[in-house]
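The instructor's notes for this session suggest beginning with a concrete chain rather than abstract definitions. Hand out the sequence below and ask the class to guess, before any prediction is shown, which regions might be ordered.
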Amino acid sequence: MLLTAPPGSSIDVLGRLIADKLRERLGQPVVPDNRAQAGGTVGTNEVAKAAPDGYTIGLSFTGPLATAPYLYAKLPYDPATDLAPIVLVGSAPNLLAVNAALPVGTFAEFLAYVRARPGQLNYASIGNGSASHLAMELLKAEAKLFIVHIPFNGAPPAVQAVAAGEVQAIMSNPTSLLPLLQAGRIKALAVTSRTRWHGMPALPTVAESGFPRFEAIAWNGMVAPGGTARAIIERLNREVDALLRSPELKPRIEAAGWDPVGGTPEAFAAFMQAKRARWQPVIKRSGAKLD
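After discussion, reveal the predicted structure:
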């Protein structure tokens, strides 16, 4: 099973949890193999180009499966036709967090503060074209904000820059933010899922704070090469879906920073198509490009 994120990442932890239990359910080896280059597109392409025999599957995520076609001038695979969806595995919200010293205490105060200082404030992302970047670009478009993007190479330096006051804000997943939130060096103002996050139930959503259509979640799912036999897809879907609901694995998935989802291959296909349609205009507006 190709894991399209680096060792130690939350997707890596999730993939290894599933691989370990899937090995037991299938009665054959399931070997995790990290292929994280080029934002996960290298590993996803290897899945797309593999023989459709069920022996090569991948755990990929938002970028390679939904936003990459609009970020890369030449993507070597088409996620809509070269991959067979198996199951939507997990999702996680982003949190809008700011430097602890910033004189705002609510999402509404943050909007007012930024609007009063157009172009004078910065926000960090975990990389150009990342979910962290695009989530803030979506907020900028919907809330009509002018705040400058500063990309970093990954979550640790981006979050540290917010804590140090080098930049004022960030949108990122809770796993990367919680240590500094708990230390009081940054503060969270809103969550980007449609409903409140169970980890911080008192934190309002952007949607309930005046932007009812707003949603910007991270997600990941299992895929196989396009053309894989329906029987293979159904078996893998059945086994992984059961694992996601199991009392043994569900809390461990949540501890890795994800909410287990599950569902049918058709539901995952429709989900991905909706996300591609959602992010294409955001990426075009932002001018983000990768090569």
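Then share the key points. The radius of gyration is 19 Å. The CA atoms of residues 55 and 239 lie 15 Å apart.
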